[in-house]
Structures are given as structure tokens and as C-alpha cells.
Amino acid sequence: MAMIIKGKKRLSGEVEIESSKNAILPIIAASLLTDDEVRIRKVPNIKDVTTIMQIIKILGKQVKEQERQIIISGKLMNHHPPYELVRQMRASILLMGSILSREGKVRISLPGGCAIGNRPIDLHLKGFHGLGANINFDNGDVIAKGRRLKGNHIYLDYPSVGATENLIMAAVLAQGDSYIENAALEPEIQDLANFINSMGGKVTGAGTNVIQIQGVSELHGSDYTPIPDRIEAGTYMLAVAATGGQAVIKNIIPEHLKAVSAKLEETGVEIKEYDNHLTVKRDSYIKPVNIKTLPYPGFPTDMQAQFMSFLSCARGSSIISESVFENRYMHVQELQRMGAEIKIEGRAAIIKGVKELTGAQVKASDLRAGAALIIAGLTADGSTILTGMEHVERGYEGIITKLNALGANITQN
């Protein structure tokens, strides 16, 4: 399956953002912490959600889907998520904390996902060990055992989002209090904590670098709506700005987009923020900027590729420094095929703006690279044929429909 993008189409109108992929996956994982019914609303129709739902069904949970909701209930019957599904998605590792907490044991293969660099799970395992679990490896699987985990002080060497989420889930049913220091600050961490608290958990400090979890004996059901997807919102902001368009981005939390909005404004794009939406408008040339990716509230690594596409036609040279992942420039050679002038030096990319990009046949290597190439195709002269669509479908619901509604000309074959 390929996406065919006819360029030079200015985007205008309005687009509504779905619930956050990076919030809903840990929330689904945390639903395993109770046998009671959990209802999750505004569920995005994306491949990663489909994959994690397949996994929890195999683990014995009952899953019903109705009107963009999923209802999860029943007992866990299995503590070994299947390799063939786990390898498809990095977020599968988030099942580890909830299964260990609930069952006292878990066996899981090392996870897959996007090819954007080395993402070891040593911080997760070190934290589980700190809570009293024994860790072993066997035939490519990691095995953790701990009949009733015990609260502890855990210091993360790096503010890992996944490790913070996994350890919250592991600690919520542990005996006593746990503290996670140097915790990740991302809004998705706060959303997970809010969801767990809606189930009767006692998690405080989420969104700060010290999170306290008071262990409880059990959790109950919940009815919950996750936060909007700040990366999807940022992607549409860049697409509109790249085409010199004007649009309303609806169903957002402007605070979560501050880093992206600030950099767009530096380039000359006009951003106006309201309670739950914002407007994007560009009617002048793109000014070059320098960007360094950092953990939240810094500039998100998940927006680096999209911003590089945008800066490819800036008037001057920009520098992007990737400090989060060491292999997140796989989109560069594809952008170069479209006429971008980009030079990689270590973890820095130097982007010398060109007058315009030209359509070409390109391939997405990962989710955000795919989004970047779509943005490039929207601005390019001629047609761009994008393959690797399976990566894009992991995180963007109905992206072709939404872009076409804004005035794009995209088809599939």
C-alpha cells in the first residue's frame, strides 16, 4: 500500500485531534490491575491500540468495542504476552509492571516498535528489582517474579517515560509507599496517574520529578477519557504551516504544545491559543531556527522529524540536535531524495533551506518519519509516493481523510 501525495496544496479549515496514543497504551496496560469493568472513551482507531487489545485478550481479559469505546473486564489467565505481538510495539513492555503487580510474575520478550535507536529496559528492571522482584533472562525473554512487591525509594538514572509508567503500575498494589525520583514529567504520566487514582489508587506528584505511590490492596473499575494527542496536534500544526496555510486545531491542551508553538512562532508562524483549540497561520517566509530535543517540557523528540521537513524550505540554515535517541535521522536520506540539503554531524543535523522540494518515491522507516515525509510531500512540487504506510497507521487515525478535508490531494493504491 502506498500513499500518493500531490504537492503545492495549501491547507485550510479545521481538524480535530484524537486521544493520545502515548497516554491510552499505558492506560490499557493499567486496566489489568483490576478484574472490574474499565471503560475507556474516545479510543483512537490506530494500529497500536488494536495490537495491545489483541495482547490483553490473549492474556484472558474480555474486551468489548462500541462507539469509540473499549470495555475491559475479567481475570488475567496468562502472564506471558505472545512474542509475535509484543515485537510489533515498543509499548508492550508497559504490560510488565501491571502483570507483575497483579500476578506476582511476568514473562515477556524484549519489545519491538520503531527503529529509532537503542532503547534498553534496564531502568524498568532495576526499578522492579528495587520493589523486590527477581529478574532473570531466558531465550530472549525477561522474567520477573515477586509475589507481593514492597514499596521502596527508586531513583531513575534518566527520566524515562516508559520506566516511570511501568514502576507506577508495579508499585500501586505493593506493600507500603514507593517514591520514584527523577521521574519523567510528560503529560501522559499525569494521565496514567489520574486513571489509576480513578480506580482507587493513591499516586501523587505525577508531573513533577518525585512521584509518591501509596500501595493499596486492590483497585476497582473506572470510566475514563484520555488526554488529546499532543504529537498528532503538533504534526497538523507543522503540515498547515509548511503549506503556508491557516487552520484551527481542535481538541487540544495548549499547555502541552508550548515547546512546538514557541519554535513555530520563532519561524514566523502565527499561533493563537484558546481554551481547547488553537489557530495556525503562515503567510510569510520560514525563518531558520535551532532546536534541541529534550524530555518534557523541552522540545519533543517525536516532533523532530516533522520540524525538519518544515525547515527544509526555510530561508537560511537551521540546526537540530537529537539528544534523546541516537538513531532518529533515518528520514534524512528520504528528504534528501526530495531535494533537501541536510548534513548529519554526530547527533546534529544541519538543514540548509532550499527554495522547494520535489516529489519522489520515498519510504517511511518509522512512525514520525512517515509523518515528516507526508509534510514534505504536501509542500513538494509534483507527486510523492510514500510506502511504509504501516508505520504511519500505528499512530495517526484517518490521516489521509483529515488532510484531504484540509485541502490536500492524497490517494492510496
Care to describe what's here?
It is elongated, with a radius of gyration of 21 Å. Helix 6 (161-171) runs parallel beside helix 7, helix 8 packs parallel to helix 12 (367-379) and helix 10 packs parallel to helix 12. The strands form six sheets. A four-stranded mixed sheet has the order 21-22-1-23. Strands 2-14-16-15 form a four-stranded mixed sheet. It has a four-stranded mixed sheet with strand order 4-5-3-13, with helices on one face. The chain is of the alpha+beta class. A hairpin with a 2-residue loop joins strand 4 and strand 5 (69-73). The protein has helices at 21-30, 47-58, 83-86, 95-103, 122-130, 161-171, 187-198, 230-242, 258-266, 304-311, 332-337, 367-379, 389-392, 399-405, and strands at residues 3-6, 12-16, 38-40, 62-66, 69-73, 105-109, 134-138, 141-145, 153-155, 177-181, 202-204, 210-214, 222-224, 246-250, 270-273, 277-281, 290-292, 317-321, 341-345, 348-352, 361-363, 383-387, 409-412. The protein folds into two domains: 3-18 and 228-412, Alpha-beta prism (UDP-n-acetylglucosamine1-carboxyvinyl-transferase, Chain), CATH 3.65.10; 21-224, UDP-n-acetylglucosamine1-carboxyvinyl-transferase, Chain, CATH 3.65.10.
Indicate the mean pLDDT: 95
Tally of domains: 2
**Shape summary:** elongated
CATH fold type of the largest domain: UDP-n-acetylglucosamine1-carboxyvinyl-transferase, Chain
Query: How is the main sheet built?
Result: 4 strands, mixed
Oligomeric form: single chain
Q: How many strands in all?
A: 23
Give the second-level CATH assignment, the architecture of the largest domain.
Answer: Alpha-beta prism
Radius of gyration: 21 Å
What proportion strand? 15-25%
Determine the N-to-C terminus distance. 6 Å
CATH class of the largest domain: Alpha Beta
Helix content: 25-40%
Q: What strand line-up does the widest sheet have?
A: 21-22-1-23
